[in-house]
Specification:
177 residues; RNA polymerase sigma factor 70 region 4 type 2 domain-containing protein; mainly alpha; elongated; 63% helix; two-stranded antiparallel sheet
């Protein structure tokens, strides 16, 4: 059934073949959720919107899922903004000159050159690395390494199971020949 024949049907994307939400469907889902929040039953919502009880349930679920996803995206964007500000501050600190100070005076070598405090730069680098790690965790960029470890463990376990199922005589090491 095409989108004209059923105005509540989402449109099929001709490139991907998948259904995509239309503006009308998103608005209907929001209306269904608003009616549900008013205490209406799914049957009543369906009757009001001209859809089945099951479609009303689906509409409410989609609206809630979309609201949660939007809120989560907003939170992630806020955290990214905060991390970017921290990272910029760390870079500013890293680019400054830091000198060794003792009793309120800059310490100088025998030639009179001020001694630089590399410890401060190293601390700034550590802080920059921790901030970048927070970015990676927040955005899920480290996930593939975790999957790789789990796959490696799974491979070892399968190998052990095969070894125990085949037994020592089926390994191909025929010592009696």
């Amino acid at each position: 059934m095409d989108a004209v024949a059923n105005p509540h049907q989402d449109a099929r994307n001709h490139n991907t073949g998948r259904y995509e939400r239309t503006l009308e469907t998103a608005q209907r889902d929001a209306r269904a959720a608003a009616l549900r929040a008013e205490g209406r039953t799914y049957q009543e919502i369906g009757e009001d919107l001209g859809i089945s009880k099951g479609a009303a349930m689906d509409a409410c679920r989609r609206a809630v899922r979309e609201a949660v996803q939007d809120s989560a995206k907003n939170l992630i964007n806020l955290e990214v903004t905060r991390l970017e500000a921290m990272y910029d501050e760390v870079l500013d600190i890293l680019q400054r000159e830091h000198y060794v100070v003792s009793h309120g005076q800059i310490v100088r070598d025998d030639t009179g050159t001020a001694l630089r405090d590399d410890e401060m730069k190293l601390k700034a680098i550590d802080r920059a690395l921790r901030t970048r790690e927070s970015f990676r965790k927040l955005l899920g960029l480290d996930a593939p390494s975790r999957v790789s470890i789990e796959a490696e463990q799974l491979g070892r376990e399968i190998g052990r199971l095969l070894d125990s199922a085949l037994g020592p005589d089926d390994t191909g090491d025929d010592t009696d020949a």
